[in-house]
Amino acid sequence: MKTNQNLETLVKHFEYIHLVTRPGSWQPSKALLIQKSSKFHISTISDFCEQMLGKVYIAESATHRSLAGTLPGFSPSIRLFKKGVDAIFSLGLLLASCPFWLWSAFKINQQSPGSVFYRQVRVGWKEREFTCVKFRSMRLDAEASGATFSSKRDPRTFAFGAFMRKIRLDELPQLLSVLKGEMSLIGPRPERRVFTEVFEEQIPHYRERHRIKPGITGYAQICYPYGAGLKDARHKLMYDLYYIKHWSVRLEAYIFFRTIVTVFTKQGC
Known about the structure:
mainly alpha; two-stranded parallel sheet; two-stranded antiparallel ribbon; 11 helices
């Protein structure tokens, strides 16, 4: 009754109404709108997220399932296309970035003596683990207290490390993982097992992101601000699942273009 009273107030003040509701809860509201207004639109929260926000709605509680079924992953033709693009672009980027590898190694040793590279086991395609290699951007004792999420303006980074992360220079060694077939240029960012186990328990459909290869950059990275923790993981998953469900060459090109813009405008973490 209260909902109908609120709607009556709305139709008196607005000519057009777009009502977003949970599935199965909009029949009384629809009947009222038909009587009161000639310009209205009703959609479920799932439809609204995909059509207007460009993401797949994921419920907050692990007890709710917001997808009708599992996503099929990429077809063989899409995988073949991405494999070809990955090989061509990763080789080109490796050759073009050679001077940056030398510069990065020199600056890392200068500001934080020790290993130039940082190796970490991540969860990839079909939940297989692989070793992710990056230029080290943090102090050697960064995880002395245990595994923690990195954050924007992370105090554990040294000066050049923070700069590398800002323009994504620390990601360059992952091009080798792309050539090995462990990663793709574009896809969901790979996480550590210690975090994925928690996310899989708390976030519905989290395992669906492992249906494709992880990426150096991805749709979630260009759409969602840098964040860490359960809440941010859920929101980033919405974008990752949209990428899997609605993949197209146009979407792939858009992500690639936006990543270039992010690098040159220093919008990284």
